[in-house]
Amino acid sequence: MNLEMPPVVFLMGPTGAGKSACALALAARLPIEIISVDSAQVYRGLDIGTAKPNPVEQRTVRHHLIDCCDPTEAYSAARFRRDALLAIDDIRRRGRIPLLVGGTGLYFRALQYGLALLPCADPARRQQLEADYREFGGPAMHARLLEVDPVSASRIHPNDPQRTLRALEIHALTGRAMSDLLVEAQRPAPLSVLSWVVAPTERSTLQEGLAARFDHMLERGLINEVAGLRACPGLDLDKPAMRAVGYRAAWRYLLGELTYHQMVESAVIATRQLAKRQYTWFRATEDATWWNSEDEALVSRLCRVLESRSLRTFVDYT
User: Fold this and answer.
1) How far apart are CA 45 and CA 47, in angstroms?
2) Is residue 118 predicted with pLDDT exceeding 80?
3) Beta-sheet strand order (sheet of 8-12)
4) DSSP 8-state class, residue 309
5) Domain coordinates of the chain in residue numbers?
6) Rounded Cα distance, 77 and 75, in Å
7) Structural contact between residues 13 and 199, judged by C-beta atoms closer than 8 angstroms
8) What average pLDDT does the segment 291-315 reach?
């Protein structure tokens, strides 16, 4: 291994598993800068519900790819890949270690293996699909996707019209499943990757803690945060940012469509479903080492792994 170019470290895991706390603890001991791998933390104004590092944490440890765009914009895996590669180069030029932290599996995969060449949007085809969506509804369109691309359907929520229609559009244009095309990646990035997944040994432990985590977000002012977002011109529930867990339920509560109890229940269920999907995704990640997030010696163990990977000449552990 070239000691002047240590591996990029992926710190992955399901939501609520303690990845951010682990990353900050590592950064207190090593010359690390953190690159967020979170499809919601890229949006300005989505702070509490995304568990975004607070201003003190961001001043203590330099973070990248947080607050990259307005919530009315779309942020893609392709854009993440470009931004992350630039951040990695910048961090390495300053002699520091890039630690990529988050739970968005697609972003990790796009960075490491590249992206498939997908067809551009076809306005006429999309218009027809949108008309079908309005006529038949989300569940019916998701069922249609399940027939032609069960892998994508398993990863796309039935209430996610943008991704459902995009997958159907790709199949209509190419005659192939989007999931198959994504496997046919472009040239991978020239990265040596050390992949870690941090999660409780028992999945039920995480599931039980997610309700308390959402309650804490409410106590910190999540409803007020969403009320402020509703005032943003051009922002509505169809925008990608509002797919972030908890935000849609809180928005509907403010509209009077859900009671407070229904809002909490909906958000917790959605969070648990997200965690389940993330477990499934990371279980399929090649060459990833799983670590128990409840291990009190976790940070020390991870530091020793870095040392064993011949980073001693690059990192001053004292």
Assistant:
1) 6
2) no
3) 63-64, 32-37, 97-102, 8-12, 193-199, 288-292
4) I
5) 8-115+185-311, 123-183
6) 7
7) yes
8) 80
Place of tokens 């990248």: 64
Residue 165's φ and ψ, nearest 5 degrees, are -70, -35
Interstrand relation of 8-12 and 97-102 (parallel, antiparallel or unpaired): parallel
- Cα separation of 307 and 311, whole Å? 5
Give the integer Cα–Cα distance in Å for 178 and 116. 9
Structural tokens at position 3:
């000691």
Average pLDDT over all residues of the chain: 90
Place of tokens 């779309």: 74
CATH number of 8-115+185-311: 3.40.50.300
Q: What is the DSSP letter of 26?
A: H
Q: Angle 172-177-180 (CA atoms, 0-180°, nearest 5)?
A: 145
pTM above 0.85, yes or no: no
Give, in order, the Cα–Cα distances in Å from 180 to each of 104, 108, 284, 313.
19, 18, 16, 42
Q: CA-CA distance, 265 to 268, in Å (whole number)?
A: 5
User: Would you state the pLDDT for residue 187?
Assistant: 59
Residue located via tokens 């892998």: 151
Classify 101 as helix, strand or coil. strand
Minimal CA–CA distance to 295: which of 230, 205, 214?
A: 205
Q: Are 165 and 157 in contact (CB under 8 A)?
A: no
Topology of domain 123-183, per CATH? Answer: Histone, subunit A (1.10.20)
**Residue 311, pLDDT score:** 53
For the stretch 190-229, pLDDT in tens is 788 999 999 999 888 898 899 999 999 999 999 999 999 9
Strands (DSSP E) found in the chain: 8-12, 32-37, 63-64, 97-102, 193-199, 288-292
Q: What is residue 43's DSSP assignment?
A: B
Average pLDDT over residues 268-296: 94
